[in-house]
Amino acid sequence: MSSLFRKVLLALACLSGVVGVQAGDGPTRLAAGEWPVSRAEYVGADQCKSCHQVIKAHYAHTKHALAFERNPGDDLEARNCEACHGPGSAHVENPVAVNAIVDFGQDSDLPKDAVNGQCLQCHDEGERTHWANSIHDANDLMCSDCHNPMARFSRKGLQRFDSVNETCMSCHKTQKVEFAKRSHMPLLEGKLACVDCHNPHGSATDPLLKADSVNQVCYTCHQEKRGPFVFEHAPVRENCANCHKPHGSNHESLLKTARPFLCQSCHAHSRHISDLLPVEAGPGGEFSDARIAGRSCQNCHAQIHGSNHPAGVRMHR
Ligand code: HEC
Ligand code: HEC
Ligand code: HEC
Ligand code: HEC
Ligand code: HEC
Ligand code: HEC
Ligand code: HEC
Ligand code: HEC
Ligand code: HEC
Ligand code: HEC
User: Fold this and answer.
1) Cβ(218) to ligand 2 under 6 A?
2) 248 lines ligand 6 (CB under 6 A)
3) Cβ atoms 109, 37 nearer than 8 A
4) Nearest CA residue ID for atom 12, ligand 1
């Protein structure tokens, strides 16, 4: 059936009150769990399984099946398939009818908020407190873009692909490349995952960061950089991203630029002449210090993240 025809049907259904969603421009936000197709009743999972044999077998290995079938916490969980797909009587009567049952996925005709709302009935707290209007929600992502609850593809988290990282990288190709650069966070080596730093479900800190700032994210693993130091280096305290890339870089130690240019991007004029090139050429102008050329500033300013030495004011020690 053409999607236009489906939409016309849906619009007619809306007008006649069969479907509980409102027609109109823009997304329709329904209360979590509000079932978009109102005239259907629950039929029980045995009915579903009688036709969907293969699905049933794959689903049996998931956490939902274990929870809903063996030890349901409440009436909603005891509905099993219908806890997510909504009441099934209309679909059972006519399995090929459009929108007779909640259909997940990007080609679903139902409003995305209503479909995601089926999951949020049970999962609207904790990690998902900031889901609404997060960048993923605003870009019309669905829970089912990252999760596939119908089968166990990943060891945990019911991910769509083998692992969290592969799930994220299926869309974020640029970041995938960054992690393959000469210096990179050991993500492809399996030592950390996107979700160590990001919360894909939404966060109060851009871009989807798990902590209150970039630095707080970094401190969770690099505690020794937290300080406080007797002599702080201001840009370190402000933001690690002043000097580092978070994912990967072609310069050593994930640096944004090569040294000494990195340092010189802020320290154009210091007491010793730190510039590689003459600042003002010509009579009376300053010239670069021969000691600096071709050398790293850190040959002398070694404690770049801060110093605890009584004489470390210039971060020499
Ligand atoms: C009488 C057999 C039968 C029963 C019972 C049945 N289904 Fe289906 N179901 C089908 C068929 C056939 C299709 C494929 C329809 C199509 O491709 O258009 C289908 C499709 C679906 C889809 C995909 C919908 C879509 O638009 O792509 C979902 C989800 C689904 N069923 C869930 C359920 C659930 C949940 C139950 C129990 C409440 C259930 N089914 C009971 C036969 C059945
Ligand atoms: C935790 C929520 C949840 C439960 C419980 C659940 N489903 Fe699903 N179901 C989904 C989601 C999400 C998708 C879409 C998966 C995807 O994107 O491929 C789906 C897809 C389907 C499809 C369409 C598959 C396809 O390839 O198009 C069928 C049929 C289906 N489910 C039947 C069932 C049956 C039968 C049960 C009970 C035995 C059940 N579901 C239990 C969430 C659920
Ligand atoms: C009726 C309540 C309910 C609904 C609806 C529901 N879930 Fe769940 N979900 C649960 C329960 C209960 C668990 C098991 C929690 C546990 O064992 O810690 C769970 C676990 C999960 C997990 C963790 C799996 C793991 O391996 O750790 C994910 C991911 C998940 N659900 C996603 C979804 C998605 C996506 C949807 C909608 C398609 C959905 N859930 C709908 C109740 C629900
Ligand atoms: C952009 C990808 C993405 C989207 C979209 C997404 N999730 Fe997740 N979700 C993840 C990842 C990755 C994990 C695993 C986190 C971990 O291992 O720490 C996860 C874990 C979970 C868990 C189990 C851990 C927990 O927090 O209790 C639940 C439940 C869950 N998601 C529900 C949902 C629901 C409901 C939606 C839709 C409103 C959704 N997710 C949308 C990526 C996503
Ligand atoms: C289905 C595709 C898809 C998947 C899968 C996906 N994302 Fe996204 N993500 C997007 C889109 C679309 C945007 C918004 C547009 C943009 O900035 O790229 C976005 C934005 C983001 C942003 C914010 C970017 C910014 O500039 O503010 C972060 C961070 C992010 N995603 C992390 C993740 C993580 C971590 C995962 C895996 C758990 C993930 N994404 C999985 C599609 C996806
Ligand atoms: C070590 C922590 C960390 C890990 C691991 C991580 N990120 Fe990030 N990511 C960040 C930080 C911090 C920023 C913000 C940088 C800034 O403010 O300049 C960011 C920014 C982003 C952005 C916004 C655009 C950009 O590149 O600046 C996207 C999208 C993103 N990350 C996706 C991902 C994906 C996908 C993964 C996993 C494949 C991932 N991140 C793993 C820390 C991390
Ligand atoms: C989940 C833990 C974790 C988080 C969070 C984290 N890192 Fe790392 N980082 C690591 C690991 C593991 C290594 C590799 C250490 C090794 O191989 O000895 C590393 C290495 C590094 C390196 C050295 C890379 C090289 O090529 O020598 C830099 C620089 C770095 N991290 C900066 C940061 C910054 C900046 C942040 C915050 C955006 C951050 N890290 C957040 C775990 C983390
Ligand atoms: C002023 C620039 C600058 C800022 C800001 C900065 N770093 Fe660095 N960082 C460097 C340089 C330069 C190196 C290379 C050190 C070397 O070769 O001795 C480095 C190396 C590292 C390393 C690997 C070597 C080591 O010392 O363990 C880690 C990890 C690291 N930085 C983490 C951080 C964290 C976390 C932050 C934020 C709290 C941060 N950096 C802020 C310049 C900076
Ligand atoms: C993002 C800008 C920025 C970058 C990059 C940067 N610094 Fe700094 N640095 C500062 C600021 C701001 C101060 C504090 C100046 C003040 O207190 O007057 C400072 C202070 C210092 C001091 C102590 C100066 C004093 O007066 O006590 C030294 C030494 C220093 N930086 C060296 C370096 C070196 C070496 C690098 C390269 C690895 C570097 N800085 C990179 C901004 C930066
Ligand atoms: C050969 C050792 C050496 C090298 C190499 C070196 N410095 Fe210094 N730097 C010093 C000493 C010693 C002082 C302290 C001078 C003083 O206190 O009078 C100093 C002071 C500074 C100060 C504080 C000066 C002020 O204006 O108050 C800054 C900033 C600084 N250096 C930045 C850099 C940068 C950037 C580079 C690399 C381009 C660099 N240094 C390379 C030895 C060095």
Assistant:
1) no
2) no
3) no
4) 95
Q: Retrieve residue 103's tokens.
A: 């259909």
pLDDT value of position 13? 39
Contact 309, 317 (CB under 8 A): yes
* Cβ 123 vs Cβ 63: under 8 Å: no
Say if CB 27 and CB 112 are below 8 A apart.
Answer: yes
What is the rounded average pLDDT of the residues 214-221? 97
* Residue 91, ligand 1, Cβ within 6 A: yes
Is the distance from the beta carbon of residue 48 to the nearest atom of ligand 1 less than 6 Å?
A: yes
User: For ligand 6, what atom is nearest to the CA of residue 168?
Assistant: 35
Token reading at 244? 């580092």
Distance, CA of 58 to CA of 129 (rounded, Å):
30
Q: What is the mean pLDDT of the chain?
A: 83
Who wins on pLDDT, 281 or 199?
199
**pLDDT for position 134:** 96
Higher pLDDT, 107 or 89: 89
Q: Are 33 and 48 in contact, with CB atoms under 8 Å apart?
A: no
Sole residue written with tokens 């994912």: 247
Closest CA to 187 of 179, 198, 197, 175: 179
Tell me which residue has its CA closest to atom 15 in ligand 9: 234
pLDDT, residue 286, reads 54
